[in-house]
């Protein structure tokens, strides 16, 4: 094997925590969607930052690729070891390091998941709001600049990560950001690392912003006769400055899937799902104003989830949309799209996408975080039908091109990974080369998640493998 | 002169819009605080992005330094041409390029000031919230990641710039970001450029997030017996989740200066100045809850500015604090500090700073954006008293060291410029070298604002000048 010497050194460092078994390699070569498996040569389970630093020194010395692994819930094949090398499974670095109750901040290790963090915070009156649906690791969420249903109220990872500890390709340990709520002290390396998908460094610690549990919460679902009316409603309430914690759109097909898979009896029409957080009075006022807009736009079947159980059920259903879709067409494979357009173009973009999916004869509900202008389609594909896959890729390509032509982006939250690399040049033009220059400066041997994110620099990796 | 050939080429390109006069050079070699003047060799007034690109190509060919200039209101000497070269005065690129009313976004040129933008937006019901006090250019505000009194409610430039057009050192024009409200598409070059102080590129256009004019606004001033009570109040209201648009602290000396310079009759005690934005009901509720905390903390002389005129007067007074201080001690020179600490350490940090200033026998009011944990002292110095200057620098140094020891930052909004360069290593450690590597990758000849921000790379500049 090409990396024998590296693996010997890693074995000395990690002992049992370096795994070469086929089962472990296969497990870390999988992904949740349609990309071909790509197992690493070995899987390491580091326990400390210092160990990650030692690992990176060994991998630099032997030019061995390193791909970090959180929970493997990425939808774009980010963590596939397409050039082999070492998978760095961060699951043992999953501790809460320090809670700063008075500052509403917390330091955590990257392998902790968002649900575990919120469970640990339960007694404090604080919570971490970013929720991409999956119970992802916080390191993974930082690496993909994740967001989710609460972005309209609380922001994305970009808005909620104050600082990072990162191990660079050569093993250097750096700290970015601070616990100050703002800073003008130099280049924003925290922001640069967020969304860099493991290509610039390995995140070994995060300082996160927490939020107070709202005094009052109110959620609702309402149905609309047309997709257009539902999406226009979103546009109106945003312009009116109504403060929402969540506003989600699901189309008629999603409602149908929810009914079948969850036993609900939603009208099989487009819906909005909304939530307000604040004081009792504020939530009451915002809910009322929202209700007025919905009525004006012909919305109906307004159903307020008043108890905590009802709310949990509502959002569990929303978060379970992807597995529900996959289960709805047994044995299918999902191709999940993810674009953002300016709010003014949202209705048009969703309608055009609906038409494209139907014209292609595909099964694909549309749903999304419409308060951000972000929506997805879950294209459910027969694994053996190559033509269906081809048509799905064409629909996805059209969506990405439409997003760009409307001034938007090809990915709002899923990231680039394998699936969106082909659009980087179209989205960024000459700026993509700047990303390449930064990658080259920070990882000259191209050992950090090679083959992803930046213009092709896989030469070093290929050489190393020879 | 070292740059004769470059200046000839620039003259051909720009004609009258290249100025070599001593008056113009002196004007662009000044700063608002204590740094020694450093005039450039020439001043260019570009009119288009294409022209900026041509200028950069010429300056790259001749290894001539380039320093961008907005309105010259920086407090840390950012735009001083310490290695000579060309000053790029952006004042002719001051247009509103396109308004996206429905998306609450606007594209502007960098020479437009924030006040002009808000005047142009007046009829739209929208406004741009970031207000560093001075009527700075939007390009300058982006370059220093500026903030100000409204950060607690609306965020800093980081939160309100969606995308940029930037001309790189070699003349390449790139676009960063998009009009999408969020994106996971690659490295966040917008965030990297924000706060890079002209060392990575020249900003030639900005896409900004706008906000709806609030339905209701309510401002108030209240006095406290002790600095500690005022600052503790801030900590409490933040933890209670009271939504403020502004919360400012001024100490007893500032109140005294306001009274003398503005004819007010504030009690000469520490004060908080606060503003709420929202619906009528929301503002009323938040104001009431705030009032309860103030009473509990022994605050008094609660004075609500109910009319728009009263509010304008209040915030004009706050924004005029720096010139008021300078005028209070005629002929003095200001040394303005700028640190941020975690909110839990704020009271302690402000009190320790007060003690340091008094112990050093200096005149220096303390005031700041305490909702962000950010505060300043305006140390008013006799230009001819070298010992006073030395003591002021010592106080400033202690503040920076204290900020770092408390997990904060040496600058919340003024930036690095000349004044904070000496603290970059202490704040960032090994991450400072990463900033240097990025600078090297994007500006290998070190012609963009050389001598600032990153570890010393002035060699190329010195060679060019030989």
From TrEMBL, chains A, B:
Residue intervals of the FAD-binding PCMH-type domain: 35-213
Lipoprotein keyword on record: no
Keyword Transit peptide applies: yes
Cofactor(s) annotated in UniProt: FAD
Transmembrane segments: none
UniProt keyword terms in alphabetical order: FAD, Flavoprotein, Oxidoreductase, Transit peptide
The enzyme's E.C. designation: 1.1.2.4
Family statement: Belongs to the FAD-binding oxidoreductase/transferase type 4 family.
Protein name, as recorded: D-lactate dehydrogenase (cytochrome)
Organism name: Thioclava litoralis
């Amino acid at each position: 094997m090409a990396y024998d010497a590296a693996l010997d050194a890693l074995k000395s460092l990690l002992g049992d925590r370096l795994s070469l078994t086929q089962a472990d390699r296969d497990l870390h070569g999988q992904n949740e969607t349609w990309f071909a498996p790509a197992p690493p040569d070995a899987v390491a389970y580091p326990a400390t930052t210092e160990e990650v630093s030692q690992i990176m020194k060994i991998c630099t010395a032997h030019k061995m690729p390193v791909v970090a692994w959180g929970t493997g819930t990425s939808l774009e094949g980010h963590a596939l070891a397409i050039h082999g090398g070492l998978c760095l499974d961060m699951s043992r670095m999953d501790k809460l390091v320090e809670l700063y109750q008075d500052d509403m901040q917390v330091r955590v290790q990257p392998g902790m998941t968002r649900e575990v963090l919120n469970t640990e915070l339960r007694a404090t009156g604080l919570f971490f709001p970013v929720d991409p649906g999956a119970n992802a690791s916080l390191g993974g969420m930082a690496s993909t600049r994740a967001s989710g249903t609460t972005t309209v109220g609380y922001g994305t990872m970009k808005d909620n990560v104050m600082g990072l500890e990162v191990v660079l390709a050569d093993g250097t340990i750096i700290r970015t950001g601070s616990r100050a709520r703002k800073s003008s002290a130099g280049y924003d390396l925290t922001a640069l690392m967020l969304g860099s998908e493991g290509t610039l460094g390995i995140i070994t610690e995060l300082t996160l912003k927490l939020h107070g549990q709202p005094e009052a919460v109110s959620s609702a679902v309402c149905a609309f006769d047309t997709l257009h009316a539902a999406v226009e409603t979103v546009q109106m309430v945003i312009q009116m400055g109504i403060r929402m914690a969540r506003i989600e759109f699901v189309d008629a097909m999603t409602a149908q899937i929810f009914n079948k898979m969850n036993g609900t009896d939603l009208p099989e029409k487009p819906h909005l799902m909304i939530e307000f957080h604040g004081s009792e009075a504020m939530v009451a006022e915002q809910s009322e104003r929202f209700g007025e807009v919905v009525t004006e736009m012909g919305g109906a079947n307004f159903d307020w989830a008043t108890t905590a159980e009802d709310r949990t059920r509502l959002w569990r259903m929303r978060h379970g949309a992807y597995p529900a879709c996959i289960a709805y067409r047994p044995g299918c494979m999902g191709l999940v799209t993810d674009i953002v357009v300016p709010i003014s173009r949202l209705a048009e973009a969703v309608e055009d996408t609906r038409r494209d999916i139907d014209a292609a004869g595909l099964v694909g509900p549309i749903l999304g975080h419409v308060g951000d202008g972000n929506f997805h389609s879950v294209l459910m594909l027969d694994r053996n039908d190559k033509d269906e896959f081809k048509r799905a890729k064409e629909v996805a390509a059209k969506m990405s091109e439409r997003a760009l032509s409307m001034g938007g982006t090809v990915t709002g939250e899923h990231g680039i990974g394998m699936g969106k690399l082909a659009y980087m040049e179209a989205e960024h033009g000459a700026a993509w080369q700047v990303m390449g220059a930064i990658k080259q400066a920070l990882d000259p041997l191209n050992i950090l998640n090679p083959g992803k994110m930046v213009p092709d620099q896989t030469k070093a990796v290929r050489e190393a493998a020879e």
